[in-house]
Amino acid sequence: MRDVLLLFGMQGSGKGTQGKRIKERYGGFTDIIVGQLLREKAKTDKDMEMLMKTGDLFPDEIVEDVTEKKIDTLSSGEKILFDGFPRSESQLLMFERLAAKYQFHTVALNILINEEESLVRLRKRYVCPKCDYMQVGEGNCPKDGAKLELRIDDTNPEIIKHRIAIFKKDTQPIIDHFKEKGELTEIDGIGSFDEVTERIFKVLDKYYLTRVVK
Ligand SMILES: [Zn+2]
User: Fold this and answer.
1) Is residue 200 within 8 Å of 18, Cβ to Cβ?
2) Of 54, 63, 92, 159, which residue is most buried, by most CB within 10 angstroms?
3) What is the end-to-end Cα distance of the chain in Å, rounded?
4) Hey, where are the domains in the chain?
């Protein structure tokens, strides 16, 4: 059996921050960022490099292959946090194949915020130009002291609306799938980061702290 956590949420839902907090609290998580695995493979593979340059989508077999190879390197107790996967219908089928092969115990969370909230939050989201630190509101990076900046993409309502539209079209059916299977819990994403974290921990404690290991 392999513990697998999937985090969903519209842009601005605080997924990244919550993911970090989850990893800190429970430990033993490995991020599998499919996009990054593909970029790494492209460094040693000419055909892949071409695909990357032309911006074409990678064939599903390649995506599945790199993901499987990564899972094979994990030790037995390690949990997986998938980032940005599955994100399409065909990747969902792939996920199901992997779930059967590796006996995933899947927990999916969807951090719920509405469109308006998403727009408001992205406009107030400040990022560090040096590292990946991010917060709501101005200030300096607590890690390196750099002055935090607004991301231009995040201040453009047209770009944000487009991203939200893609989320609804591509990601929502995947969320619905996990919901129908009874593997997804919805988390109220309104409120401070701390409040949302508390709600998430309440759900995940059941799985990762108090579960009796068989
Ligand atoms: Zn920083």
Assistant:
1) yes
2) 63
3) 10
4) 2-114+172-208
